[in-house]
Amino acid sequence: MSAERDLRAVARAERDRIRSERLRQLRRNPAFVVGAVILGIWVVCALIGEFVVPHEPALVDILSTNKGPSSEHWFGTDVVGRDVFSRVIVGARPVLVMAFLATVIGTVLGTVIGLVAGYFKGWADVIIMRILDAISALPVLVIALLALAAVGGSSQPVTILIIGFVFTPIIARTVRAAVLPEAELDYVAAARLRTERAPHILAVEILPNVLPPIIVEFTVRLGYAVFAIATLGFLGVGVQLGSPNWGSQVAENYGRIFADNWWSTTFPAGAIATLAIAINLVADGIVESFEQ
Amino acid sequence: MGAYILRRVGLALVTVFLVTTAIFFMTHILPGNAAERILGNLAERENVLLLEKQLGLDKPVLVQYTSWLGDAVRGDFGESIQHRVPVEKLLVPSVGYSLRLALVAFLLTIPISIIGGIVAGVFRGRWIDRAITVGGLSAAVVPEFVWAVLLVLVLGVNLHWLPTNAFPGTDASVPEIVHHLLLPSVALILVLFGYISRIARAGVVEAIESDYVRTAFLKGLSRPAAIRRHVLRNALLPTIAVTASMVPYLVGGLVAVEIIFNYPGFGGLLLKAVQYRDYPMLQSAVLIISVVIVGVQLVADILFAVLNPRIRQKVSQ
What we know:
Chain A is mainly α. Chain A is about 75% helix and about 0% strand. Chain A has helices spanning about 1-30, 30-50, 85-90, 90-120, 125-135, 140-150, 155-180, 185-195, 200-205, 210-235, 245-255, 265-290. In chain A, α10 (about 210-235) packs antiparallel against α12 (about 265-290). Chain A starts with a helix and ends with a helix. By secondary structure, chain B is mainly alpha-helical. Chain B has two domains: about 1-80 and about 275-315, no CATH class; about 100-275, MetI-like fold (Orthogonal Bundle). Chain B contains 14 helices and no strands. In chain B, α5 crosses α8 (about 175-210), α5 (about 85-120) packs antiparallel against α10 and α12 (about 265-275) crosses α13 (about 280-305). The N and C termini of chain B lie close together (about 10 Å). Chains A and B meet through α5, α6, α10 and α12 of A and α1, α6, α7, α11 and α12 of B.
């Protein structure tokens, strides 16, 4: 018993050492730090933005439409006189919440399917590969448009589910590829000899060892989710009408870009770009830290 | 080789059939609402039912499916519910315009991305490699419509370098057409560059580290000559395969870019079809998209086999 406890303590110490080494490496990676800071700013905006904005984001003021940036309106006002700065700040929430939920759904389902497919192989394997084939024959955006047309309307929960479902087979493939060699290792055979049941082996033995590719896949997919949600918002489907979605803000104000109102399009467009790039830099840093 | 091509064509047809079937049943999860959409919320119940009958939406889904599939195979895609004209009348010209834009974007993307990937691979670890790799992938995660907006603003409205109107008219000359398509193409290139250049870079790095290139260096071949003769040839093959797999991204990007530039491609038709639940239009548009994508991947697969002696030998045995 005490030998086993010693072994566990050693294993824990080793895990802690690797983790702190990784964190140190991430802190030294300038691209990661820049990405993490920008992402952090948008997360703060999503959390408390609505309490600190200088103007009511939805307040229409037809007497001051298309006003340029000033001390009163830092990012100017849009085509119906709403404060662009306030709308950009509160716009962080719908994008981040939807992208996060969609990615969590895709990652959880994809991990479960990938674990099962990689461990049992056989039919689950075949089905995942066929679904992947069919999905890769169409752009994600077109699949989302089709599904939204099928269920009718522009409901946000539907958009979240669709993006999550599209991500599921992609994440399942990554997890499956990581599980395949892992399932051949001795510790899995040992667990089987101890007559552990399959769910226990998958969740307690194998899952902790395939976490790195899952974490990487999660951050990469989060970026794609922002990409897809912003684009759907721009196209006017899949988001709540009138919500301060960055994509919708670009669509509403784009017509004025030739009439000297550059601010009400550029600031939400820039917000999308900075969020997407920040997530990509964070994902890149995590990939590098796992590679070494 | 003939048998290999035949098998690949067969597989491609199966994929298109599966996608088609999936599309049809997806759009019929909630049948019947197309008539309500056309007539509006306040329409009388009898009128809705009458229109459903006219459009054939009252029949069982399976009957609708087989008749649609039979017609589609014969080249009859049905009538657009929204416009009341045959679908192909609207789709064929707009798909032509989209292909035109896609072609310009693709023909520009491939050489630019490959050159970028080669430069990054040859100068691996230097600042220029870092700039191309991180910059390229950062550009790739920003949606096309965001790039399009920023490009229109900077290159079009402020600097007047490129026309912001993507469509010069039906009787424009070829250089004029290409000139007008440059701005939307740049938006598409920015998203594709990162992925394609990354693969080209990986191919270059792998080739440089291989034994035959080391031999070339050792026997005194100069670095540029070794790269030109040995590295490039081996590095570019995998790029073909990846380029084909980027076509779905390109097509997805077309939708948003065409709408920003008010370009008469299929993107606008597809979006309107979604908003109005115009099933015949939606099904036909997605069918054409999947045929184009599967077709390009098929051609790339065959090209890859023809160009790569190892695969050529394997498939002819």
